[in-house]
Amino acid sequence: MTTTTNQAGATTSQATPEKVLDARGVTMRFGGLTAVREVDLTVNSGEIVGLIGPNGAGKTTFFNCLTGLYVPTEGEVRYKGTVLPPTSFKVTAAGIARTFQNIRLFGNMSVLENVLVGRHTRMKQGLWSAVLRLPGFRRTEEEATRRAMELLEFIGLAHKAEHLARNLPYGEQRKLEIARALASDPGLLLLDEPTAGMNPQETRAVEELIFAIRDQGIAVLVIEHDMRFIFNLCDRVAVLVQGQKLIEGDSQTVQSDERVIAAYLGEPIDEAPSTKAPADEAPTDEAPAAPAKAAETAEDTDTDADTGSDDAEAADDAPAEDDDTPADTADAPKDAAPGKENDA
Ligand SMILES: Nc1ncnc2c1ncn2[C@@H]1O[C@H](COP(=O)(O)OP(=O)(O)OP(=O)(O)O)[C@@H](O)[C@H]1O
Asked: Tens of pLDDT along 242-253?
């Protein structure tokens, strides 16, 4: 609680926002490569924070450090004041849920079952209780189903609860992933490129969904390349470039920062960038903020970072066709990590 006195001398009290996420000095090295270097980032209750940066900037690696998939080489991550345990299952149980850049649904399970999978961290019944279907287990199961249906209602897919996940259109599969993440009752939701491959209508729907999630008291940290989406959505945006945080601020501050534009155009950070370049690149009509165009340009031309990862992700991002792999075992980062890493 903070107390402030206004000019008229009246004293008012305001609830201090709680630090839901507090990452300090997070560094992740893979052999000689430092993918993330001394990154500090906080997310407060009630906030939607964006994490942007060119391909290969270290965004997903940073997410992996937050969610226990990687143990950071240096630094500390706290959730609501407590240092996070170093495994992803325990991180989820602590209150952080995430989605992945590439869809990881159980394609041959129903929509409802996929959400129920996300609920298992909150189900306390033991093995024998499940095998013998004791009354306690049945009650837990009914409660889980009720909550899963509530979530499907929330994302607008209750009417498809019995459909196979693989038969959903792409945009709905992405929403279903969000519902599955919400099933663990998180206090912080991490979304890794939630609108990748979506058309503008689907993107708009996800934007509305994220606002609704925030309104339910869940803080959100989101990685996205779609700048229009990010700057509309986020209270605060942090920019990663070559593993380091370049700038953090509100949308207006970030999108007008010349270093951000330069970074997206691939210019050296400390050289004075030309502000003319992005304007030249941007179509006049429906150009989003200048960095957005710059991002597209960077993606189109950036061969180093894109080669491999984008190809792999293009394949990965296809809707689940024959996905019998449990999501949790599929949680391994996209590249086999030679460095410190945890299984999901
Ligand atoms: N497991 C790993 N082993 C070795 N290097 C890795 C590993 N994971 C990521 N990297 C490297 O770390 C750097 C950051 O990658 P990361 O995927 O975090 O970037 P990103 O900002 O999420 O990129 P994109 O926007 O393309 O998804 C890249 O150079 C990448 O090749």
From this structure: 999 999 999 999
Helix (H, G, I), strand (E, B) or coil at 243: coil
Residue for token pair 């897919």:
157
| Distance from Cα 36 to the centre of ligand 1, integer Å | 9
CB 117 near ligand 1, within 6 Å: no
- Measured CA to CA in angstroms, residue 281 lies from 37, 220, 255, 267, 285 at distances of 31, 31, 15, 15, 12
Helix (H) or strand (E) holding 10: none
Cα 52 to its chain centre, rounded Å, is 11
Note the ipTM here: 0.97
Summarize pLDDT for 36-66 with one digit per residue, the tens.
999 999 999 999 999 999 999 999 999 999 9
> Pocket of ligand 1, candidates 26, 34, 41, 59: which has the most ligand atoms within 8 Å of its Cβ, to mutate?
59
Is any atom of ligand 1 closer than 6 Å to the C-beta of 37?
Answer: no
